Amino acid sequence: MSNLSLPLGAKGSGRARYAAAMDMYQQGLINPAALEVYRIASARDGQDPAPMLAEIGMNPVMTPATAADHITRLIDEADAYIATLPGPGVAEVRAGMTPWRGGALQVTPQANRVVDQHLAAALAPLRATHLALAQAIDAAAPHLTWITYDRYPLDEIGADFAQGHAYASLIGEAGNMLARDYDLGIFLIAPHVLYRDHHHAAPELYAPLTGPHGWRFGPATPLITKPAHHPVWNEAHRPHMTKVGPTPFLALFGWIRDVTQAAQVIPAPDWPALEALRLDPLA
Ligand SMILES: [Fe+2]
Questions:
Q1: Residue 2 pLDDT > 50, yes or no?
Q2: Distances (CA, A) of 63 to 23, 30, 56, 264
Q3: Ligand 1 centroid, distance to 200 Cα (angstroms)
Q4: Of 278, 269, 189, which is closest to residue 225 (Cα–Cα)?
Q5: What is the predicted pLDDT for the residue at 6?
Protein backbone atom coordinates (compact mmCIF):
# COMPACT_ATOMS: atom_id res chain seq x y z
CA MET A 1 0.00 0.00 0.00
CA SER A 2 0.99 3.59 -0.42
CA ASN A 3 1.90 5.70 2.55
CA LEU A 4 -1.25 6.59 4.49
CA SER A 5 0.58 7.77 7.59
CA LEU A 6 0.75 11.42 6.54
CA PRO A 7 -1.83 13.44 8.47
CA LEU A 8 -4.28 15.87 6.94
CA GLY A 9 -2.39 19.03 5.96
CA ALA A 10 1.05 17.38 5.73
CA LYS A 11 2.91 18.30 2.57
CA GLY A 12 2.24 15.65 -0.08
CA SER A 13 -0.49 13.94 1.93
CA GLY A 14 -3.19 14.65 -0.65
CA ARG A 15 -1.18 12.92 -3.35
CA ALA A 16 -0.31 10.04 -0.99
CA ARG A 17 -4.02 9.53 -0.25
CA TYR A 18 -4.81 9.60 -3.97
CA ALA A 19 -2.05 7.04 -4.69
CA ALA A 20 -3.46 4.78 -1.97
CA ALA A 21 -6.95 5.21 -3.40
CA MET A 22 -5.63 4.28 -6.86
CA ASP A 23 -4.16 1.07 -5.42
CA MET A 24 -7.48 0.23 -3.81
CA TYR A 25 -9.40 1.06 -6.98
CA GLN A 26 -7.11 -1.22 -9.03
CA GLN A 27 -7.81 -4.02 -6.56
CA GLY A 28 -11.53 -3.43 -6.89
CA LEU A 29 -11.88 -2.28 -3.30
CA ILE A 30 -13.36 1.17 -4.01
CA ASN A 31 -15.55 2.43 -6.82
CA PRO A 32 -14.77 5.10 -9.46
CA ALA A 33 -16.77 7.77 -7.58
CA ALA A 34 -14.65 7.32 -4.46
CA LEU A 35 -11.46 7.42 -6.52
CA GLU A 36 -12.65 10.69 -8.07
CA VAL A 37 -13.07 12.21 -4.59
CA TYR A 38 -9.46 11.38 -3.74
CA ARG A 39 -8.33 12.77 -7.10
CA ILE A 40 -10.06 16.09 -6.43
CA ALA A 41 -8.69 16.22 -2.88
CA SER A 42 -5.17 15.31 -3.99
CA ALA A 43 -4.26 18.87 -4.97
CA ARG A 44 -4.97 20.25 -1.48
CA ASP A 45 -3.13 18.57 1.36
CA GLY A 46 -5.47 20.16 3.91
CA GLN A 47 -8.71 19.10 2.28
CA ASP A 48 -10.39 16.27 4.14
CA PRO A 49 -12.02 13.90 1.62
CA ALA A 50 -14.50 12.73 4.28
CA PRO A 51 -17.34 15.19 3.59
CA MET A 52 -17.29 14.49 -0.15
CA LEU A 53 -17.15 10.74 0.51
CA ALA A 54 -20.11 11.05 2.90
CA GLU A 55 -22.09 12.67 0.08
CA ILE A 56 -21.69 9.49 -1.96
CA GLY A 57 -22.37 7.27 1.03
CA MET A 58 -18.83 6.03 1.64
CA ASN A 59 -16.86 5.56 4.81
CA PRO A 60 -13.72 7.74 4.68
CA VAL A 61 -11.51 5.25 6.48
CA MET A 62 -9.06 3.69 4.02
CA THR A 63 -8.25 0.27 5.39
CA PRO A 64 -5.31 -1.43 3.69
CA ALA A 65 -6.28 -4.68 2.02
CA THR A 66 -5.51 -7.77 4.09
CA ALA A 67 -3.94 -11.00 2.84
CA ALA A 68 -7.42 -12.56 2.92
CA ASP A 69 -8.74 -9.68 0.77
CA HIS A 70 -6.02 -10.32 -1.81
CA ILE A 71 -6.73 -14.06 -1.92
CA THR A 72 -10.49 -13.54 -2.15
CA ARG A 73 -9.89 -11.09 -4.97
CA LEU A 74 -7.73 -13.65 -6.78
CA ILE A 75 -10.41 -16.34 -6.45
CA ASP A 76 -12.98 -13.89 -7.86
CA GLU A 77 -10.69 -12.93 -10.75
CA ALA A 78 -9.81 -16.59 -11.45
CA ASP A 79 -13.49 -17.52 -11.63
CA ALA A 80 -14.27 -14.53 -13.84
CA TYR A 81 -11.42 -15.50 -16.16
CA ILE A 82 -12.41 -19.19 -16.36
CA ALA A 83 -15.98 -18.09 -17.13
CA THR A 84 -14.71 -16.48 -20.36
CA LEU A 85 -13.16 -19.71 -21.66
CA PRO A 86 -14.70 -22.00 -24.26
CA GLY A 87 -14.79 -25.76 -24.19
CA PRO A 88 -15.37 -28.72 -21.92
CA GLY A 89 -14.62 -28.66 -18.21
CA VAL A 90 -15.25 -24.94 -17.68
CA ALA A 91 -18.78 -25.43 -16.36
CA GLU A 92 -17.69 -28.32 -14.11
CA VAL A 93 -14.81 -26.36 -12.57
CA ARG A 94 -17.05 -23.35 -11.92
CA ALA A 95 -19.88 -25.45 -10.49
CA GLY A 96 -17.40 -27.33 -8.30
CA MET A 97 -16.19 -24.20 -6.55
CA THR A 98 -19.66 -22.87 -5.74
CA PRO A 99 -20.28 -24.86 -2.52
CA TRP A 100 -17.01 -23.62 -1.01
CA ARG A 101 -17.10 -19.92 -1.96
CA GLY A 102 -17.48 -17.56 0.96
CA GLY A 103 -16.03 -20.00 3.49
CA ALA A 104 -13.45 -18.96 6.06
CA LEU A 105 -10.04 -18.26 4.60
CA GLN A 106 -6.83 -19.80 5.93
CA VAL A 107 -3.74 -17.73 5.19
CA THR A 108 -0.49 -19.67 5.55
CA PRO A 109 2.13 -17.95 3.39
CA GLN A 110 4.90 -20.16 2.08
CA ALA A 111 7.51 -18.59 -0.19
CA ASN A 112 9.05 -20.55 -3.06
CA ARG A 113 12.25 -20.08 -5.06
CA VAL A 114 10.53 -20.87 -8.39
CA VAL A 115 7.95 -18.14 -7.71
CA ASP A 116 10.65 -15.66 -6.70
CA GLN A 117 12.57 -16.38 -9.89
CA HIS A 118 9.83 -16.71 -12.51
CA LEU A 119 6.47 -15.20 -11.54
CA ALA A 120 7.34 -11.66 -12.65
CA ALA A 121 8.30 -12.83 -16.15
CA ALA A 122 5.01 -14.71 -16.43
CA LEU A 123 2.94 -11.73 -15.28
CA ALA A 124 4.55 -9.20 -17.63
CA PRO A 125 2.74 -10.38 -20.80
CA LEU A 126 -0.46 -11.12 -18.85
CA ARG A 127 -0.66 -7.49 -17.70
CA ALA A 128 -0.94 -6.37 -21.32
CA THR A 129 -4.11 -8.39 -21.96
CA HIS A 130 -5.63 -9.22 -18.53
CA LEU A 131 -4.56 -6.43 -16.18
CA ALA A 132 -6.99 -7.11 -13.32
CA LEU A 133 -6.12 -10.81 -13.20
CA ALA A 134 -2.38 -10.09 -13.37
CA GLN A 135 -2.68 -7.55 -10.54
CA ALA A 136 -4.74 -9.96 -8.47
CA ILE A 137 -2.10 -12.70 -8.86
CA ASP A 138 0.72 -10.27 -8.10
CA ALA A 139 -1.01 -8.96 -4.96
CA ALA A 140 -1.98 -12.41 -3.66
CA ALA A 141 1.26 -14.25 -4.50
CA PRO A 142 3.18 -13.32 -1.29
CA HIS A 143 0.31 -14.69 0.80
CA LEU A 144 -0.18 -18.05 -0.97
CA THR A 145 1.03 -21.45 0.22
CA TRP A 146 3.43 -22.31 -2.60
CA ILE A 147 4.45 -25.96 -2.86
CA THR A 148 6.98 -27.77 -5.00
CA TYR A 149 5.40 -31.22 -5.31
CA ASP A 150 7.68 -34.03 -4.22
CA ARG A 151 5.57 -37.20 -4.41
CA TYR A 152 6.70 -38.21 -7.91
CA PRO A 153 9.71 -40.58 -7.86
CA LEU A 154 12.61 -38.32 -8.88
CA ASP A 155 13.98 -40.75 -11.47
CA GLU A 156 10.57 -40.86 -13.19
CA ILE A 157 9.64 -37.16 -13.21
CA GLY A 158 13.19 -35.85 -13.75
CA ALA A 159 15.15 -33.16 -11.92
CA ASP A 160 14.08 -30.28 -14.19
CA PHE A 161 10.42 -30.54 -13.25
CA ALA A 162 11.08 -31.63 -9.67
CA GLN A 163 13.01 -28.42 -9.02
CA GLY A 164 11.36 -26.15 -11.57
CA HIS A 165 7.71 -25.82 -10.59
CA ALA A 166 5.46 -24.53 -7.82
CA TYR A 167 1.73 -24.47 -7.25
CA ALA A 168 -0.67 -23.04 -4.70
CA SER A 169 -4.16 -24.29 -3.93
CA LEU A 170 -6.79 -21.56 -3.58
CA ILE A 171 -9.84 -23.76 -2.96
CA GLY A 172 -9.07 -27.34 -1.92
CA GLU A 173 -8.34 -29.88 0.77
CA ALA A 174 -5.19 -27.88 1.60
CA GLY A 175 -6.33 -24.63 -0.01
CA ASN A 176 -6.85 -21.17 1.43
CA MET A 177 -10.56 -21.91 1.20
CA LEU A 178 -11.35 -25.42 2.45
CA ALA A 179 -13.04 -27.84 0.01
CA ARG A 180 -13.52 -31.58 -0.17
CA ASP A 181 -12.60 -33.54 -3.31
CA TYR A 182 -12.07 -30.39 -5.37
CA ASP A 183 -9.05 -28.24 -6.15
CA LEU A 184 -8.64 -24.85 -7.78
CA GLY A 185 -5.18 -23.37 -7.86
CA ILE A 186 -2.39 -21.64 -9.69
CA PHE A 187 0.61 -23.37 -11.22
CA LEU A 188 3.99 -22.04 -12.32
CA ILE A 189 6.73 -23.90 -14.25
CA ALA A 190 10.12 -22.47 -15.20
CA PRO A 191 10.98 -21.83 -18.87
CA HIS A 192 11.88 -24.80 -21.09
CA VAL A 193 11.00 -27.42 -18.47
CA LEU A 194 9.36 -30.64 -19.67
CA TYR A 195 6.52 -31.87 -17.47
CA ARG A 196 6.81 -35.48 -18.59
CA ASP A 197 3.91 -37.67 -19.72
CA HIS A 198 1.64 -38.56 -16.83
CA HIS A 199 -1.97 -39.29 -15.94
CA HIS A 200 -4.24 -39.12 -12.92
CA ALA A 201 -7.77 -39.97 -11.91
CA ALA A 202 -8.83 -36.36 -11.41
CA PRO A 203 -10.47 -34.76 -14.46
CA GLU A 204 -8.50 -31.57 -14.90
CA LEU A 205 -8.84 -28.16 -16.55
CA TYR A 206 -5.71 -26.20 -17.37
CA ALA A 207 -6.21 -22.52 -18.15
CA PRO A 208 -2.77 -21.31 -19.31
CA LEU A 209 -2.26 -17.57 -18.82
CA THR A 210 1.02 -17.52 -20.75
CA GLY A 211 2.31 -19.16 -23.91
CA PRO A 212 3.31 -20.69 -26.15
CA HIS A 213 3.65 -24.17 -24.69
CA GLY A 214 3.87 -27.63 -26.23
CA TRP A 215 1.39 -30.36 -25.32
CA ARG A 216 0.84 -33.98 -26.19
CA PHE A 217 -1.76 -36.41 -25.03
CA GLY A 218 0.03 -39.74 -25.03
CA PRO A 219 3.62 -40.81 -25.73
CA ALA A 220 4.19 -41.23 -29.49
CA THR A 221 1.54 -38.64 -30.33
CA PRO A 222 2.67 -35.35 -31.92
CA LEU A 223 3.64 -32.27 -29.91
CA ILE A 224 1.00 -29.55 -30.34
CA THR A 225 1.88 -25.92 -29.67
CA LYS A 226 -0.77 -23.78 -28.00
CA PRO A 227 -0.73 -20.05 -27.25
CA ALA A 228 -1.85 -18.47 -23.98
CA HIS A 229 -5.55 -18.59 -23.09
CA HIS A 230 -6.30 -21.89 -24.87
CA PRO A 231 -7.64 -24.20 -22.16
CA VAL A 232 -6.90 -27.91 -21.97
CA TRP A 233 -9.40 -30.36 -20.49
CA ASN A 234 -8.07 -33.76 -19.45
CA GLU A 235 -10.66 -36.42 -18.72
CA ALA A 236 -9.77 -38.98 -16.01
CA HIS A 237 -6.53 -40.81 -16.82
CA ARG A 238 -5.96 -39.05 -20.14
CA PRO A 239 -2.18 -38.98 -20.65
CA HIS A 240 -0.74 -35.46 -20.94
CA MET A 241 2.64 -33.78 -21.18
CA THR A 242 3.59 -30.09 -21.16
CA LYS A 243 6.71 -28.56 -22.69
CA VAL A 244 7.24 -25.02 -21.43
CA GLY A 245 8.36 -22.37 -23.92
CA PRO A 246 10.64 -19.40 -23.26
CA THR A 247 8.01 -17.70 -21.07
CA PRO A 248 7.31 -19.40 -17.74
CA PHE A 249 4.14 -21.50 -17.75
CA LEU A 250 1.55 -19.81 -15.57
CA ALA A 251 -1.86 -21.47 -15.39
CA LEU A 252 -4.97 -21.77 -13.34
CA PHE A 253 -5.99 -25.38 -12.80
CA GLY A 254 -9.14 -27.07 -11.61
CA TRP A 255 -9.53 -30.70 -10.45
CA ILE A 256 -13.18 -31.59 -10.10
CA ARG A 257 -12.96 -34.94 -8.23
CA ASP A 258 -10.63 -37.76 -7.13
CA VAL A 259 -8.10 -35.15 -6.08
CA THR A 260 -6.30 -37.33 -3.53
CA GLN A 261 -5.36 -40.04 -6.03
CA ALA A 262 -1.69 -39.58 -6.96
CA ALA A 263 -0.60 -38.95 -10.54
CA GLN A 264 1.59 -41.48 -12.31
CA VAL A 265 4.34 -40.94 -14.85
CA ILE A 266 4.11 -42.74 -18.21
CA PRO A 267 7.59 -43.66 -19.57
CA ALA A 268 8.55 -42.39 -23.04
CA PRO A 269 11.84 -42.77 -24.93
CA ASP A 270 12.01 -39.22 -26.32
CA TRP A 271 12.20 -37.22 -23.09
CA PRO A 272 15.91 -36.30 -23.60
CA ALA A 273 15.11 -34.74 -26.99
CA LEU A 274 12.04 -32.95 -25.63
CA GLU A 275 14.01 -31.66 -22.65
CA ALA A 276 16.65 -30.24 -25.00
CA LEU A 277 14.01 -28.74 -27.32
CA ARG A 278 13.57 -24.93 -27.35
CA LEU A 279 10.17 -23.75 -28.57
CA ASP A 280 9.90 -20.77 -30.89
CA PRO A 281 8.67 -17.81 -28.80
CA LEU A 282 6.42 -16.76 -31.69
CA ALA A 283 4.89 -20.22 -32.21
FE1 LIG B 1 -2.41 -33.09 -14.90
A1: no
A2: 12, 11, 18, 46
A3: 7
A4: 278
A5: 60
Q: How many CB atoms lie within 10 A of CB 51?
A: 11
Strands (E), the chain: 165-172, 177-178, 183-189, 194-199, 204-208, 213-216, 224-226, 232-234, 240-244, 249-255, 264-265
Q: Mean pLDDT over residues 257-277, rounded?
A: 97
DSSP state of 142: G
Q: How far is the CA of 42 from the centre of ligand 1 (A)?
A: 50
Model's pTM, two decimal places? 0.81
CATH topology (fold) of 68-276: Jelly Rolls (2.60.120)
Cα–Cα distance measured from residue 8 to residue 180, given in angstroms and rounded to the nearest whole number: 49
CA of 135 to the centre of ligand 1 (A): 26
Least confident of 35-49, 123-137, 232-246, 263-277: 35-49
Domain boundaries, the chain: 1-65, 68-276
